[in-house]
Amino acid sequence: MSTTPQGSTSNQDEITLGTTTTTTTTTSTVSQQEHTAINDGSDSRRHEAFDLPISKKFKSSTTLIKNGSDPTSMSSNCNTANLVEAMEHTNGETNCNGKSENNNSQHTTTSQQMAGVFQHQTSTSSMKTPEIDEGLYSRQLYVMGREAMHQLASAHVLISGMRGLGVEIAKNIILGGAKSVIVHDCGNVEYADLSSQYYFTENNIGQNRAEVSNKHLSDLNNYVNVTFSSATVDDAFLLKHKVNVYVLTDADLEEQLKVGKHCHEHKIKFVNANTKGLFGQIFCDFGLDFEVIDTNGENPLTQIVTEISQDEAGVVFMSTDTRHGFEDGSYVTFHGVKGMTEVNEREFKISVPSPYTFTIGDTRNYGVYEGGGTVTEVKKPERVNFKPFSESLKDPELLVCDFAKMSMPANLHLAFQAFARFKQQYNSSPKPWDDSDADKFVEIVEKLNTENREQPLTDELNKHWIKLFAKTCTGDLCPMQAVIGGIAAQEAMKAVTGKFMPIRQFFYFDAIECLPENVFLPSNEVTTESPTKMKSTVAAEAVKAMNSRMNIRAYVDGVLPETEHIFNDQYFEDLDGLVNALDNVKARQYIDRRCVYYQKPLVDSGTLGTKASVQVVVPFLTESYSSTNDPPDPSVPMCTLRNFPNLIEHTIEWARDNFAGLFTIPAQQAEEFMRGAKEFAERTSKNHSEYDKTEIVENVKRMLGSGRPNSLSDCICWARHLFEQQFHNTIAQLLFNFPRDHVTSKGERFWSGNKRCPHVLNFDVNNPLHLDFVVAASNLLAHIYQIPQTRDRKLIAEQVATIHIPEFKPKAGITIHENDEQMRADNDRQKNITAMRKNGQSANDIEIEQLLDRLPSPEKIVNIKIQPHEFEKDDDTNFHMDYITATANLRAENYEIQTADRSKIKRIAGNIIPAIATTTAMVTGLVCLEVYKFIQGHKKIESYRNGFVNLALPFFGFSEPVPPKRQKYLDKEFSLWDRFEVKGDMSLEAFIEYFKHTHKLVPNMVSAGMSVIYSPHFMRQASKAQDMKRKISELFETVTKSKIPPHVRSLTLDMLCDDLEGNDVEDVPYIKYTFR
């Protein structure tokens, strides 16, 4: 894009930042603010190669960027409180001796003695590898695993080249948690660098790129030793800094060949990354016999064993509810199998004859299977060999990412080489949009395609693509750097951890669809919504720091139905498009509905660990986000959770519900009662079943009655009894109802298949897990009543030992549901009883009085203070995760289920979405590339790209969006984007006549939501004539019994209608009725 000379003025772009539908609080530093805006791609400065109409489009565009707690908004929050060692910072100047004559050359790698001075500017001590900070790396730990994180924390990474691509890679690796990162560049900042290097400002022009970058990068992660250098990189340099991975960016081909040869010979992992305009390249060489410890990034499969045959095949049976998912030739191990105990803790290579069984081989000499057990996939490492760069250049392995452009990788492989040959022959790069240079460039590519080859590299040389490469290759775009930088950084992490399958070996990416649809043709406002110091505020400050010419507005209000007075008709109509970064389907669907209603383009994205997706929604061209729905997550039957768990996930969900049922809901109900007893009784009587009312009343009585705790000792005593109730008595009652040898009416063992026979737990004060439960439960109860808490385990243990627990005797006549069908039938009976008891207002009034009689009198509770718990997984001081971890694992022990560590339980209980900076960076780049397209107003569906990426495999899949489904009424086609536009408030009579004459439709019913505005069959005859003369807006207010808010200018109406001959017309578009 065109750049504005210093001191001149231009139209300013404006970005508005706002909130998600949920609000959280984060702590942010300056570096985090910068990181927040890294992925916006909002810098208006572009290299001359992109001096196209797109620049003008951006200056008159308004975009809403919806940013939330989705995995696409990876936080770079740095926790410095846990650092044990003092941090030393040394500062100094960096020389760049031995450079080429061009002062802006960024790479100098020879075998001569080290030139220049390597200058440290560290942000943490490098004396020892720090322990993994689970608070800082929690989401990444769920992606990488603890072992890989420890390996990453021991890695020393050199990144050479600190233009836009290099700094993006460095940012991602630093956030990832390498031990040390050296940023290297011998060149100085140029004006063109400002287009994609977000840390550079005009004041930095003439300063060393590495030094300027380091000032910002060193703030990103206090656990990473970030240094900079402009020295010559030679053997001594690499040895001194113990470099494990050498990342080379935007170097010339001669330099790439030198570094690639050196790294392969010296067993240094090599990642080579380049961008040329709208084209990107990545190459990986991790040497010979490289071990990949996890080839796909998926958690190992676990299934419930229901039977193992005692025969030569050794057939293992599992539940027939779902396919087991194991593959032929994979390895598994068994846990907890009864009877045939020989299979436990052993690995078996399996054969898969069906989706519900597999075989493990001869089991004739094993014991007879009696029940129980789980089988878990065992991941085996895979060995991979890499060719050196020079060899791969001649005989490349190419990864395809867009199956609509199968030959693109081969074309780009030649084009990147041709770029070097062109510079060598003509002493310059191809000039932007110069036809003569583009023709010369094509000639070079054609020669390279057959040069020193028996067969051409490709038979599908595409001159159009090659010319586009030549005309744009000197450009620089921040989103391209984000895409290639995110992927390259992940490859560097793979190199040191062996976690996930590397790229083998060349990967090429293009975004030629971002060019104007007529590529030969020669501000305002972007709006971002985010919570928390609000994320929107942080992002606004960061963007302003990067580009002072940008106007930006931050909102801290959620975009949801309750804020439609803020994000109203005028607001949305002024937008050119929206960008989502949300973490839940409901919020995305709401934004999607608004975009369809206002006919605005939307780019939605999401990440899950190494997986990412981008969907572009364009009015009239594509389907919307809500047009298709993912299948719902399989739900666990309630009876399984309550009585028959068989997986640790079941006990964790039970523990989470148990927490809410003890420490959140009852306290909230008690609070509500204390605010107004009569109103509380009325709401309870009206809104709940008989069973629920009894439970609510008992909750309030327990929370506020005479049995409430008055001291920590009372809380400890309560917690000890709670242990007995939950892990002994309840299980004893269950076994009383269904003994271990219980047989069903069909003669089958009751405790078989998915039902694990439990056993009671006898409390042992010397068992750490038992005491963990009492410590957490007693402190949680103390918090509710504002009683001082304690972490003194010895004190609690001493008191627990003195508590008398009465012997439990199971009771006859207690109903325990065997399945959800029985439970639903019981609930239906309760509802019928409740309905029969409600015989008019007087009966209801009596019931309210009865409820009040059963509750504490207000004067007795006036001095009680109640403080409910709101579950917060990330606060390690509040006992929430202590309780859920202990409870889940104790229940797992009840049912002989393998226990889990705190980290896994926290992920499941807190519904934490795994996230990593590399995926986030890449997907934001992809999003911004799609934004370029809709801002230019692309009208061809083939110009847009939906994407699905899995960096772990790696897999890259890009395709055209799906067009909207077409429907038809009379002889007219329409899609979800079409509607009837009615402007001006008119009478009902005029409204009906309008549709008769204009659209040949006769309305039979007109409704707004659930309210019927017009239906001739239900209109009162006495007022029909008068109602036909009334305005639609007036009728709306009458039937809804509410005034239309001042900010609402239009109503959404639905219509049932006939054609003029009286035939039913089934489907018609909705009506946008603009009355103001």
From TrEMBL:
<keyword id="KW-0833">Ubl conjugation pathway</keyword>
<dbReference type="InterPro" id="IPR033127">
    <property type="entry name" value="UBQ-activ_enz_E1_Cys_AS"/>
</dbReference>
<dbReference type="InterPro" id="IPR038252">
    <property type="entry name" value="UBA_E1_C_sf"/>
</dbReference>
<keyword id="KW-0067">ATP-binding</keyword>
<dbReference type="InterPro" id="IPR000594">
    <property type="entry name" value="ThiF_NAD_FAD-bd"/>
</dbReference>
<dbReference type="Pfam" id="PF00899">
    <property type="entry name" value="ThiF"/>
</dbReference>
<feature type="compositionally biased region" description="Polar residues">
    <location>
        <begin position="1"/>
        <end position="18"/>
    </location>
</feature>
<comment type="pathway">
    <text>Protein modification; protein ubiquitination.</text>
</comment>
<dbReference type="InterPro" id="IPR000011">
    <property type="entry name" value="UBQ/SUMO-activ_enz_E1-like"/>
</dbReference>
<feature type="domain" description="Ubiquitin-activating enzyme E1 C-terminal">
    <location>
        <begin position="944"/>
        <end position="1071"/>
    </location>
</feature>
<dbReference type="InterPro" id="IPR042302">
    <property type="entry name" value="E1_FCCH_sf"/>
</dbReference>
<dbReference type="InterPro" id="IPR045886">
    <property type="entry name" value="ThiF/MoeB/HesA"/>
</dbReference>
<dbReference type="Pfam" id="PF16190">
    <property type="entry name" value="E1_FCCH"/>
</dbReference>
<dbReference type="InterPro" id="IPR032418">
    <property type="entry name" value="E1_FCCH"/>
</dbReference>
<feature type="compositionally biased region" description="Low complexity">
    <location>
        <begin position="19"/>
        <end position="29"/>
    </location>
</feature>
<feature type="active site" description="Glycyl thioester intermediate">
    <location>
        <position position="639"/>
    </location>
</feature>
<dbReference type="GO" id="GO:0005524">
    <property type="term" value="F:ATP binding"/>
</dbReference>
<dbReference type="GO" id="GO:0005634">
    <property type="term" value="C:nucleus"/>
</dbReference>
<dbReference type="InterPro" id="IPR019572">
    <property type="entry name" value="UBA_E1_SCCH"/>
</dbReference>
<dbReference type="Pfam" id="PF09358">
    <property type="entry name" value="E1_UFD"/>
</dbReference>
<dbReference type="InterPro" id="IPR035985">
    <property type="entry name" value="Ubiquitin-activating_enz"/>
</dbReference>
<dbReference type="Pfam" id="PF10585">
    <property type="entry name" value="UBA_E1_SCCH"/>
</dbReference>
<feature type="compositionally biased region" description="Polar residues">
    <location>
        <begin position="30"/>
        <end position="41"/>
    </location>
</feature>
<feature type="region of interest" description="Disordered">
    <location>
        <begin position="1"/>
        <end position="46"/>
    </location>
</feature>
<dbReference type="InterPro" id="IPR042063">
    <property type="entry name" value="Ubi_acti_E1_SCCH"/>
</dbReference>
<dbReference type="GO" id="GO:0005737">
    <property type="term" value="C:cytoplasm"/>
</dbReference>
<dbReference type="InterPro" id="IPR018965">
    <property type="entry name" value="Ub-activating_enz_E1_C"/>
</dbReference>
<keyword id="KW-0436">Ligase</keyword>
<dbReference type="GO" id="GO:0006974">
    <property type="term" value="P:DNA damage response"/>
</dbReference>
<dbReference type="Pfam" id="PF16191">
    <property type="entry name" value="E1_4HB"/>
</dbReference>
<dbReference type="GO" id="GO:0006511">
    <property type="term" value="P:ubiquitin-dependent protein catabolic process"/>
</dbReference>
<protein>
    <recommendedName>
        <fullName>E1 ubiquitin-activating enzyme</fullName>
        <ecNumber>6.2.1.45</ecNumber>
    </recommendedName>
</protein>
<comment type="similarity">
    <text>Belongs to the ubiquitin-activating E1 family.</text>
</comment>
<keyword id="KW-0547">Nucleotide-binding</keyword>
<dbReference type="InterPro" id="IPR032420">
    <property type="entry name" value="E1_4HB"/>
</dbReference>
<dbReference type="GO" id="GO:0004839">
    <property type="term" value="F:ubiquitin activating enzyme activity"/>
</dbReference>
